[in-house]
Amino acid sequence: xxxxxxxxxxxxxxxxxxxxxxxLEVARGEYLVIYDAEDAPEPDQLKKTVVAFQRSDxxxxxxxxxxxxFNARExxxxxxxxxxxxxxxxxxxxxxxxxxxxxxxxxxxxxxxTAALRELGGWDPYNVTEDADLGIRASALxxxxxxxxxxxxxxxxxxxxxxxxxxSRWIKGYMQTALVHARQPLRLARTIGLRRFASFALLxxxxxxxxxxxxxxxxxxxxxxxxxxxxxxxxxxxxxxWVCLLNFLIGNxxxxxxxxxxxxxxxxxxxxxxALLNPVYWILHSxxxxxxLWQLITKPHYWEKTEHGLSEFDERAAAFA
Length: 321
Prior knowledge:
single chain, disordered C terminus
């Protein structure tokens, strides 16, 4: 038989990685791949991955395919989601791969050497971004995560509340991963090297910190425009004010530019101008980050499931529009 439907035994935690570990117990093949139920991978993705494994060094134990969205045109939120993922998977992860830096895996289209996955201990059932944790863990043990040139299409979250919930789980998982792997920072730095450790600290640890800073600093920026300069200079010396303003402009400008790069590889140029809304999009991430921080304290292993199948977007109709 080619398929086995596995019922996950009752127990805690009720998370995706716990279910994946149950599947790993009965996996028989040389390679193992994770797909979400709503995924639509390119037809030749598995063949491309096997070829990529055959051409790679044995230390490469995971191949990550790119993710993108079939309903990018549905509304503003799905457009921003698609911009973000185009940059992340087509440029960011590829850059990390070329630089031989730790790669946080996506939650789907991960292709593993089964024996190496078992050696890594499978997934952490208590981590709500088990994919990112596994990518960092592989790097810590001297393994590499590769990127395969293939795309899996998914449904982008099109509703604000569901988006914040989904992102809060992802950000909470980054917080968990940072805390777990940085329990012994000197040991980790010696194991993976200072360059990889810096990449881990800035990406996995720095991402939640950055998102947490967006709301308060955006509020301060807005308030500053309504305070006379003579009063503002009492609280903030001129040099501090100008450094902050420069950082605000350059930081947001850089992120807008990076998101504008995303559509070029895929030829979706109609998305480019939407990148100007990235500062607003980050405010949503900041709301999700505070929710994540609260959940990290109150219910750290709670899995906030993302509801799918809500999109009313017709991809075929849009192609002829």
